[in-house]
Amino acid sequence: MANPRMIPTGENNKLIETVSFEFGQSDFNTAYVRLTDANNERYSPPEDVVNKPQAKDTMNLDMCGFELIQDPFGF
User: Fold this and answer.
1) What pLDDT does 4 receive?
2) DSSP code, position 13
3) Are 56 and 31 in contact (CB under 8 A)?
4) CA distances (Å), 1 to each of 4, 5, 6, 7, 20, in order?
5) How many domains are there within the chain?
6) DSSP per-residue codes, the chain
7) Residue 34, strand partner residues
8) Are strands 73-74 and 69-70 parallel, antiparallel or unpaired?
9) ∠ at Cα 69 (38, 64), nearest 5°?
């Protein structure tokens, strides 16, 4: 098992102290999770280069069996 305290940090490998997450479902075949740094903006590939699905109001994560567990955190 990796010890996260042993991972070197620095300008190109900053420690993320607060992680934001987003779950969504864009169609019947695609559900996604996005993990981001809540305190700092980081590089993100341009939208025209990487397919970044957007959640649709007509889709619901429980349609694909998604379950969020709060304690301990899991999905």
Assistant:
1) 73
2) B
3) no
4) 9, 12, 11, 12, 24
5) 1
6) ---GGGS--BTTBPPPSSEEEEEEESSSS-EEEEEEESSS------TTTS------TT--GGGGT---EETTEE-
7) 22
8) antiparallel
9) 95
3-state secondary structure of 29: coil
pLDDT of 35 above 80: yes
Q: Which domain holds residue 22?
A: 4-74
Continuous H helices in 1-75: none
Specify the pTM.
0.56
* Residue 29 clears pLDDT 80, i.e. is over it: no
For residues 61 and 75, is the Cβ–Cβ distance under 8 A?
Answer: no
Give the residue-averaged pLDDT of 56-62: 74
- Average pLDDT over every residue of 53-69: 76
Contact 75, 46 (CB under 8 A): no
Amino acid identity for residue 50 in this structure = V
How far is residue 74 from each of residues 14, 22, 39, 67, 71, measured CA to CA in Å?
24, 13, 22, 8, 8
